[in-house]
Amino acid sequence: MGKLKEIIDTGITENHLYGNINDIRKSLSDYGVNLDENLERQNKLIKQLKFKLRSSINEEKFDALLIRATESFQEAIVKGLEKPVAYLNKLIKENRIAVQYNNLEKLSTEEIKEIIKDQNLIEIIELLENEQ
User: Are 73 and 131 spatial neighbours (Cβ–Cβ below 8 Å)?
Assistant: First the structure.
């Protein structure tokens, strides 16, 4: 009996999947399904998913820029480039970050990220690339 039930279930499912969409809508309406209400909920869910996806993509881009700017600052500190070091000192003073910045070479990656995270990262990267 199980095999027969499976064949019938598969047949009904395939009939709905490959059937005329208007027939399917009429059938759903006959069963009391409010298609307009479902469409509204589906559109709302789609908007939420798109927003989350865009947010995730933007976060990944921001993280990549932050890493790139941090690495560039670390290189500039090691090379002793004047403008980037002065800019970093300015950011530290402006943000009043509690960092022992008298020796920038000892700044960790996380400390540099914390200092520059609220700044225009594209501008910082351009400044650093122009100096190197």
Answer: no
pLDDT digits (tens, 9 = 90+) for 38-75: 888 889 999 999 999 999 999 999 999 999 998 888 88
Distance CA 65, CA 116 (A): 11
Do 119 and 94 form a contact (C-beta atoms < 8 A)? no
Token look-up 């990267």 returns: 125
- Picking from 77, 68, 69, the residue whose alpha carbon sits closest to that of residue 104 is 77
Residue 119: domain span = 56-131
Question: What is the model's pTM?
Answer: 0.56
Domain count, the chain: 1
